[in-house]
Amino acid sequence: DATNLGSLLRSQGRLREAIQGYTDWLKQFPEYAPLSLNAINCAIEANQINDAQHWISQALIHHPNDTRILQAQARTLQANNKHSDAIALLRQITNINTEDELVWLDLGYAYHLIHDREQALRAFQKAAELAPNDAKAVANTITLLQELGRYDEANSTILGLPNAVRNNTMVRGAVAYLFMAQQQMGEALKEFRDLCTLEALVPQHWL
Predict the structure, then answer these.
(1) Residues 6+ positions from 194 with CB-CB distance below 8 Å
(2) Contacts of 25 (CB under 8 A, 6+ apart)
(3) Chain segment 107-166, per-residue pLDDT in tens
(4) Closest to 86 in 3D by CA, of 59, 115, 111
């Protein structure tokens, strides 16, 4: 169907074709929320913010309380450097759906963009609390604790991780930078060597 075809085009990096397809399909199925959401996210990914905003406006007519669409709207606000508006909207969404870790992740990113590390940390910690196996939430929590110089808390966070999460490359990268910040260069070097083997094409591991 249209939703799956659009997702396939996106996965292949054919964003222009996907956007054209979504434009045609939404004329036929304007009330279908999953199709609208995929179209919006594709437009954001392609940096076609005007298209995204148009589809958000149309989708909210049919689904005014759909938190995924509101979350996408917050991303377009961030893309237009309206960070305060994005944060206010994400806060509103967390009041509607307090158990969605993805919203808390977006809120953390939004606060980090305006360099409010304390609020970003709280949001990432909430995401990690809701989804303890979410590597992004865990890695971002470790990174923010490291940036704030709260090394003991960061180390305690690492010690409590299940092996599958601790061995995630995103988490290992955050741990490596934590080791560097604490001048534990031997431990950091070991992490980076392993990461260079596991993800040889990621330039940050080689710096």
Answers:
(1) 172
(2) 2, 6, 35, 39
(3) 999 999 999 999 999 999 999 999 999 999 999 999 999 999 999 999 999 998 999 999
(4) 111
DSSP state, 205?
A: G
**Residue carrying the six token digits 């919203």:** 103
DSSP state of 131: -
Are 125 and 141 in contact by the 8 Å Cβ rule? The answer is: yes
Q: Mean per-residue pLDDT for 21-27?
A: 90
User: Rounded distance, CA 85 to CA 56, Å?
Assistant: 16
Q: Which of 113, 110, 188, 182 is nearest to 145 (CA)?
A: 182
pLDDT digits (tens, 9 = 90+) for 87-112: 999 999 999 989 999 999 999 999 99
pTM of the model as a whole = 0.86
Burial degree of 13 (CB within 10 A; 0-12, 13-18, 19+): exposed
What single-letter DSSP state applies at residue 170?
H
Q: CB-based contacts of 118: which residues, under 8 Å, 6+ apart?
A: 148
Angle, CA 54 vertex, CA 32 and CA 97 arms, to 5°: 60
